[in-house]
Fold each of these.
Amino acid sequence: MSVMFRPTILRFDSIDSTNLEAIRHAKAGAPEGLCVVAREQTRGRGRLDRAWESPKDAGLYLSAILRPQIAIEQWALITLMAALAVGDALLKSCGLRVDIKWPNDIFVHNRKLGGILAEAIETDRGPAAIVGIGINLRDAAFPAVIMKRAISVESATGTVPDAELLLEKLTEAIAGRYDLLSSQDGREHTIREWCASSSYAFDRRVRVSGISDTFEGVTRGLESDGALRVEIPDGRVRIVRAGDVTALRAMDK
Ligand code: BTX
């Protein structure tokens, strides 16, 4: 099955959240491919009700509407697909190679350059996925207090990025990666590529803050639905479907 994601861009100077605006459009019947882009967000959202700092023209803030044909249990793969698309776009437009931290963080030099917030919603036209992507273009994108944990394209490359070129490459990459994900063998392919693009996929000592508990272990790749496999000290493998993952140094054990 091949789908066609044809990006149509809707631009705002300022909006509460591009994800919220995309949800409003999806509920009103907007087709797959509609992308909401804003110069600033006044209520940019991260996961678990966290905030995403989104000052004017300091970052790229985009949300795309998808109406995926893959089974809903597999929708976690959409976040992984989007992270790969961000990696493709940054490489093509800025020559920047990034790391992906499971499930949704874009990292450079162990600092957060961007994040993805994928949300599943019900609409009259069936279920839809809203894929929100935030990328720090300049250091002004985040407050000084998180300077040690955050980074921008400008400071990573030493050059002010061309935001329009990045946006063009990003929508192109989402279209290509999404088409691939929806094709036969696309899920296996996406998992393989994600594992090859993330230093967190295998043999990484991590702490997992899950919904009910926190534990440490070593990463052992992904399940077919995108869940992270983590081997705990007694040799069992725990399957992580939600939560935050932090890298531990070898000496932290
Ligand atoms: P997250 O929950 O993984 O990350 C949120 C956390 O990251 C915050 O609690 C804070 O510590 C830190 N943080 C906040 N802002 C920044 C920033 N600009 N740079 C680095 N670190 C930051 C990640 O959630 C998912 C973010 C998605 C954002 C996009 S922007 C377009 C779309 N619309 C929307 O409302 N959200 C998405």
Note: Residues 17-19, 41, 44-48, 50, 52-53, 61-63, 104-105, 112, 115-117, 132-134, 136, 141-142, 146, 150 surround BTX (CB under 6 Å).
Amino acid sequence: MTILIINGPNLNLLGQREPSVYGYKSYRNLIQETKAYAKKKGVKLKFYQSNHEGNIIDYLQKKQATANGIIINPGALTHYSYAIRDCLSAIDLPKVEVHLSNINTREAFRKKSVIRDVVNKTIMGKGFQGYCEAIDYFIEQPS
Ligand code: DQA
């Protein structure tokens, strides 16, 4: 099983960025820890991070045929990108939305996710663990 893990704007700044919200671990740490978890489960991960909406869409369009599922943390694009939403909606793969923080308990603008109803599951507020739970979601699906 191969899963694409897409991270949007500013997630490359993990560790530096608002550590009280996102913690002190880096994006590199996220990749290492999540890959180690996936390896134990026999799952292959392809990570991609971009600060640009169009790059994320190009990547998803290009790589969809190589994957069995998509895990996406679109960062702030979560709250307003109908282009990311339409792209996810167009791709016939199972999808899980992940947020490190709990977007329901922060500023009002973060409560809205425009992608929530085009994904199979949303996981939030669990830090890096949320990505591992998303991997488990795919493993648990009947084939
Ligand atoms: C985030 C939450 C978003 O509101 C924010 O813009 C991010 C990260 C999270 O992982 O908690 O960039 O998606």
Note: The chain is about 35% helix and 20% strand.
